[in-house]
Amino acid sequence: MPKEEIQKTQTELARLQAKYLDLYEFAPVGYLSVDSAHIVREANLTACILLNCSRNHILDHNMLVFVEPKFRSIFMQHIQKTFASDHPERCELQLHRSQGQALWCGLDSKVIIRKPDVSQVRIIVTDISKTKQTELELKSLTEDLESRVLNRTKILLRYQKQLRSLASQVTLSEKRERHQICMELHDYLAQMLVACRIKLTQAKQAFPEDTQLSSLNEIDEILDQALEYTRTLIAQLSPTILYEFGLCKAIQWLAGQMQQYHLKVDVQITAQDFQLEENESVLMYHAVRELMMNVVKHAKTERANVEVFVNTDQELHVTVWDQGVGFDLTILNRSAMSASEQFGLFNIQERLEGMGGRLELKSAPGLGCTATLVLPISKKPLPMNQPSDDIRKAEAHPPESTKWKENPFRVLLVDDHAMVREGLRTLIDSHRHLEVVAEAANGREAIEQARQFQPDVVVMDVNMPVMNGIDATRCIKHEMPSISVIGISVQDEAHSCEAMKAAGAIDLLAKSGPVNNLINTILQAVESIKPFGVNPPRP
Questions:
Q1: How far is CA 424 from the centre of its chain?
Q2: Is 404 left (phi over 0), alpha (psi -120 to 50) or beta?
Q3: Beta-strand relationship, 484-489 and 507-510
Q4: What whole-number distance in Å separates Cα of residue 256 and Cα of residue 265?
Q5: Which residues contact 481 (CB under 8 A, 6 or more apart)?
Q6: Helix (H) or strand (E) holding 472
């Protein structure tokens, strides 16, 4: 080869070598060559800058000296893994700089010499301190955010608990107010209307040929309409069946009431042996009524179904379902559903959740709607109708046989309203075969008066303080079976009639009905026991 070409080649080689050294020395990352004993054999200028050491203080020194103590085991594992692999390996750790400073670095290592006597790895050292600082700041912000979210969640849960407690208090307050209004309507307005009608009947009987009889009949019709409206209002505000016979009977009664809205409701009850707190029963009753009214207003169907059962988890399920038009559940959170509808369902859900229950909804357009009210219960067998203290007393000391007396048939009048008792007494006493021998204002007094006066017939009001007419009837018929009992009530509902008859009463009559109905029922009752000829009419 000509001398000129050799010189040219050497010059070019020197130039390229100088270029490589510049690239190696001033690379943006540090380069270290480390053998299997962790001794540093090579280091570029950038590596020296990163370690804040001169090259003389790095070369031929153990690399572990430049690694923070808590990361040395990680570094040794990293080097061992690199020698055992044909691929680059990476780890992150802190290197120890002079003057006690620590620097987060990323190490990317690969074997460059693999010989029995000499083995080396090339380590690319990258400063990741800013990345780590960003990660630490991000972690700190995340922890701070999580802490704030946790605190806000606790506050939200506390507010939610307070809201549910408030909803429960609203339910109880609403129940108390409804019940108070119903008591006022029943105990005063309804009874005064009944008394007015009784007085009106007396006036009609006293002046049968009076020219004003047509006007009196018109007044009688108005009073009858007023009583009917009062009974309906009482039932809607606070149905007595719920408090006297429980949720299942109340739901059955409510299903019957839906017929006035042209909705036929089929009720299937497979669970009877459960007990609910009064506020729970009130909530479930009004929730069922709300769901039924939703069917009436929106389902566009004339049939609905209600199913009541208790599952194995001791949860009461009351399901109201229909095969009407249904709706898209996603509109619950949109304006497509009216505010009143959303509030009704939301109100039910919140109140149920406040008692540990829930509302489950299933619906789709054209597929009807199924709403299930779920409430945890304490499943305890309902107590059977045990004999009261008076019944047990009667069993221990059975009364002597009643001796019929030669006098008009004896009537015991039981009602907690003196005005009603006065009117009924006047009417009953006006009959030549009947005589009111005693009066009582509650069931307990009725039992005592029945023992003392041994009447032929007891005219028994259903709703009274101390002891209601149903329990009093049961006790009297148990102790004195020869006495006939006739129930009377402002609300002559089927469930009350069934309960009175089950207790032993002959029938349940409406106070608002014709007074002659009561007189005729009394006469039929005593005639079935002894003919009128046995007791001569009183003078």
A1: 47
A2: beta
A3: parallel
A4: 7
A5: 504
A6: helix 469-479
β-strands 89-96, 102-114 pairing = antiparallel
Given CA atoms 272, 276, 281, 283 in this order, what sign does their dihedral have?
Answer: negative
The pairs formed by 53-61 with CB atoms below 8 angstroms and a separation of 24 or more are: 53/97, 53/98, 57/98, 58/32
**pTM above the 0.90 mark?**
no
Q: Which helix (H) or strand (E) holds 10?
A: helix 3-25
* E strand spans, 256-329: 264-269, 303-310, 315-322
**CA-CA distances (angstroms) from residue 410 to 278, 484, 498?**
40, 11, 26
Is the distance from CB of 321 to CB of 371 less than 8 angstroms? yes
**Angle ∠(186,248,350) on CA atoms, nearest 5:** 90
Q: What sign for the dihedral angle of Cα 224, 225, 230, 232? A: positive
Task: Return d(Cα 198, Cα 482) in angstroms, integer.
Answer: 29
Q: For residue 483, which of 416, 393, 422, 401 has the smallest C-alpha distance? A: 401
**What is each CA distance from 344 to 103, 288, 307, in whole angstroms?**
63, 11, 21
Give me Rg for the CA atoms of the chain: 47
**Amino acid identity, residue 334?**
R
The SS3 call for residue 271 is: coil
CA distance 68 to 115: 30
* Angle of CA points 22, 25, 27, to nearest 5°: 90
Mean pLDDT per 10-residue segment, the chain (539 residues): 78 81 89 95 94 93 95 96 94 89 94 90 96 93 94 90 76 77 79 81 72 78 83 75 82 90 93 78 88 92 94 91 89 53 71 85 92 80 43 39 56 88 84 90 94 94 90 94 91 79 91 79 79 46
Write the CA distances from 278 to 195, 253, 399, integer angstroms: 33, 18, 38
**Are the beta carbons of 275 and 377 closer than 8 angstroms?**
yes
